[in-house]
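Quick one, tokens below:
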């Protein structure tokens, strides 16, 4: 870890990194097959901040990490993440301040089959660009408000197959997928009385799957059909393909996400808490359950994969005893 000033009393930086060294000892293994294996990870964190004025400060942070595991001439697994975040903090007055952020993220995953002559790698990426604005306002001693919005652009590279080590495997790539996501939200932390407090909010989420991408059309609008005779699922019957141009809307979805939680103090040591929240997920994780490989792909919502919605209710009892030396809680939820 290294840290220090950029300009005295104005800005500073910090850079921290780590790497495992277990793979160093593999070189001393008596078995040559073990010496050819690879196993390590590393990550790097960097942060900097700079004071632009009495009410303005800039923050820049980044994360870079990678994990690699490889069994010689058998399989390999590599994945990592790169993130950059630029945030501007502005204080309007003693009751109102904001954070404006620009965020870049690139997650990549690679699975390798290393059989001689037929070795290949399958790589996938999720790249996103995010702009968000968050405001915090103390309306009174009893009301603390939060509100804002964000917009995201996604670029999905679901699968790129390429030969490695002079392989006979042919290059092939699945179609890239693109999407926009936007949301606005409002939240109020309300101290109703010394005994009762409520934290309530509402978020509205919008999602657009966009081109450039060809979309297949299926008989009866079913990309997967269940065969009653064999008891198995089969590919749907393709009836045509629609080519969407760059930026054309393929599918769009929207919905509200209400959230509320309440706490009631029975006495100084005991309280009851209850909550309800709804969440929407526009990305689906697709796993291959028919093959013993750790390969997972991410799919944005579209014509045949709908967003998922979850509603969760919970209630709990919380107590502290003997001047907070012991704590007890019990909670149940329904989802």
């Amino acid at each position: 870890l290294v840290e220090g000033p950029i300009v005295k009393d104005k800005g500073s930086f910090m850079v921290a990194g780590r790497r495992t060294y277990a793979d160093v000892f593999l070189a001393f293994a008596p078995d040559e097959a073990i010496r050819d294996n690879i196993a390590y990870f590393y990550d790097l964190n960097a942060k900097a901040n700079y004071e632009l004025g009495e009410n303005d400060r800039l923050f820049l942070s980044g994360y870079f990490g990678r994990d690699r595991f490889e069994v010689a001439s058998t399989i390999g697994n590599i994945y990592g993440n790169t993130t950059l975040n630029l945030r501007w903090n502005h204080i309007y007055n003693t009751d109102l301040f904001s954070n404006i952020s620009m965020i870049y993220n690139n997650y990549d995953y690679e699975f390798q089959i290393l059989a001689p002559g037929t070795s290949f790698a399958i790589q996938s990426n999720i790249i996103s660009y995010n702009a968000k604005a968050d405001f915090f306002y103390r309306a009174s001693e009893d009301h603390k408000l939060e509100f804002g919005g964000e917009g995201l652009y996604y670029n999905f590279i679901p699968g790129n197959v390429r030969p490695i080590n002079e392989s006979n495997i042919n290059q092939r790539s699945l179609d890239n997928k693109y999407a926009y996501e936007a949301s606005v939200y409002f939240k109020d932390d309300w101290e109703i009385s010394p005994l009762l407090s409520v934290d309530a909010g509402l978020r509205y989420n919008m999602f657009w799957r966009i081109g450039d991408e060809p979309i297949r059309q299926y008989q009866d609008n079913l990309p997967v059909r269940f065969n009653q005779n064999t008891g198995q699922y089969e590919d749907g019957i393709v009836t045509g393909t629609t080519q969407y141009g760059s930026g054309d809307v393929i599918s769009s979805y929207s919905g509200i996400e209400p959230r509320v939680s309440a706490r009631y103090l029975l006495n100084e040591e005991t309280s009851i808490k209850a909550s309800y929240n709804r969440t929407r997920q526009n990305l689906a994780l697709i796993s291959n359950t028919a093959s013993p490989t750790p390969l997972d792909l991410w799919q944005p919502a579209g014509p045949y994969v709908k967003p998922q919605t979850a509603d969760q209710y919970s209630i709990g009892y919380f107590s502290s005893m003997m001047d907070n030396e012991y704590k007890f809680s019990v909670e149940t939820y329904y989802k």
